[in-house]
Amino acid sequence: MTVTIAVAGKGGTGKTTLSGLLVRHLMNEKGGKILAIDADPSSNLHLVLDLKLSQTVGDIREEARSGVTPGTTRQDFLSYAVRMAVEEGDDFDLLAMGRPEGQGCYCAANHMLRSIIDGINKGYDYVVMDNEAGMEHLSRRTTRDVDYLLLVSDASMRGMVAAETMVGMSKDLEINVKNTFLIVNRVQGKLTPESSTVRAGR
Ligand SMILES: Nc1ncnc2c1ncn2[C@@H]1O[C@H](COP(=O)(O)OP(=O)(O)OP(=O)(O)O)[C@@H](O)[C@H]1O
Ligand SMILES: [Mg+2]
């Protein structure tokens, strides 16, 4: 069974840093097959993990839009291209989502991409997903199960409120989250009483 860990929170609070640390922790302490997913359109998880990034799922979607080689089905092309886009590290792999689906439905290809990515996820023991604040990618998976949702905030009220909003968002998006944790990063001194009155847990 794949353990899915999603990291989300307000911009600049340390999501990518935490995702990178988490991948390293799993690698050192747990072992097994680990897939890091960069679900932020501005893809930078590879920099933290020190891997090169040659192609994103967004690039592949655009390529497929302009047609595939005659004799190849779109499904075959997408399946092959996404598997090729998985960057292989020594102890973990990385897949970057790149730019989102965007306006104008390209439904058939998007649906195929979602099930291809979910199929890839199933081959790993751990999937660590670094999300942008809107959790767009999480809402678009065909599998809605998330074992751990880690909400990252700084010590500010705005960060805490954003984390709390994301708990509501995950419910609205019907994501089946088993465990939610609030991680308060970059705390200097103690948390203020105002911050600690906001509850982000379930
Ligand atoms: N605990 C910490 N102490 C010091 N610096 C930190 C800490 N956590 C994160 N940073 C730094 O803060 C900056 C923002 O971190 P990071 O990119 O991980 O945030 P993010 O939430 O992923 O941002 P974005 O919303 O833009 O994706 C980086 O320069 C990172 O090195
Ligand atoms: Mg980030």
Structural commentary:
This protein is of the alpha/beta class and 202 residues long. It has one domain: P-loop containing nucleotide triphosphate hydrolases (Rossmann fold, 3-Layer(aba) Sandwich). Helices cover 41% and strands 21% of the residues. It contains 8 helices and 7 strands. The chain has helices spanning 15-30, 45-49, 57-65, 74-85, 107-121, 136-140, 157-172, 193-196; strands spanning 3-9, 34-39, 87-88, 93-96, 126-131, 145-153, 176-184. Strands 3-4-2-5-1-6-7 form a 7-stranded mixed β-sheet, with helices on both faces. Strand 3 (87-88) and strand 4 form a beta hairpin. Helix 3 packs antiparallel against helix 4 and helix 4 crosses helix 5. It binds adenosine-5'-triphosphate (ATP) and magnesium ion. The site of adenosine-5'-triphosphate has 10 residues, from helix 1.
Any idea of the CATH topology? Answer: Rossmann fold
The CATH C-level class name: Alpha Beta
| Hetero ligands | adenosine-5'-triphosphate, magnesium ion
Helical amount among residues, as a percent range? Answer: 40-55%
| Separate helix tally | 8
Q: Which regions contain 5 or more consecutive residues with pLDDT less than 50?
A: none
- Biggest sheet: strands side by side, in what order? 3-4-2-5-1-6-7
In round numbers, the mean pLDDT is 88
Order of helices and strands: EHEHHHEEHEHEHEH
Outline:
globular
Question: What is the fourth-level CATH superfamily?
Answer: P-loop containing nucleotide triphosphate hydrolases
Question: Terminal Cα separation, in Å?
Answer: 24 Å
The assigned structural class equals alpha/beta
Strand content: 15-25%
Number of domains: 1
Task: Tell me which CATH architecture applies here.
Answer: 3-Layer(aba) Sandwich
The major beta sheet can be summarized as: 7 strands, mixed
Number of strands: 7
CA radius of gyration is 17 Å
